[in-house]
Amino acid sequence: MANCKRCGRIYNRLRRDICPQCVHEEEEIFLQVRTFLKNHRNANLQELAEGVGVDPDIIVGMIQDGRIILRDNPNISYPCEKCGKPTQSGRLCAVCSAEMVRDLQIASSELSAQKEKSHKGKGFYSR
């Protein structure tokens, strides 16, 4: 049992953080968004939200979840969660994503070096 994160109702949680009724509502919104985007390729996020009649955050959530792909809609963007620059996919812009990958690679190599250093000199090798 869990509370729906959108409406607060109690429901039997299986997969998602929202109740079946909200899942159904979200699916209807998704179909409306998809239809609107097909007919208005140059709309921006605000125009899309107003045209469908939903909060822009719901649309951004669908984009971040990968349900909506914006390759044919160049004017729709939303702020990167780290730096605030406009992005069209995921939670981070391309620059912040590349920076995160680089930082993770550095951290991984440091951990590998520490692991190798800590095992050096312990035990022996024989043939």
Written overview of the protein:
- This protein has 127 residues and is mainly alpha-helical.
- It has 2 domains: 1-76, no CATH class; 80-116.
- Helix content is 50%, strand content 6%.
- The protein has 4 helices and 4 strands, in the order ββαααββα.
- The strands form 2 sheets. Strands 1-2 form a two-stranded antiparallel sheet. A two-stranded antiparallel ribbon has the order 3-4.
- A hairpin with a 6-residue loop joins β1 (2-3) and β2.
- α1 (20-39) packs across α2 (45-52).
- The longest helix is centred in the C-terminal third of the chain and has 26 residues, at 94-119.
- The chain is elongated and about 70 Å long.
- The model has no long low-confidence stretch (mean pLDDT 88).
Quickly list its features.
4 strands, mainly alpha, Tscrpt_reg_HTH_FeoC, Flagellar operon protein TIGR03826, flagellum, 127 residues, two-stranded antiparallel sheet, 4 helices, elongated, cilium, 2 domains
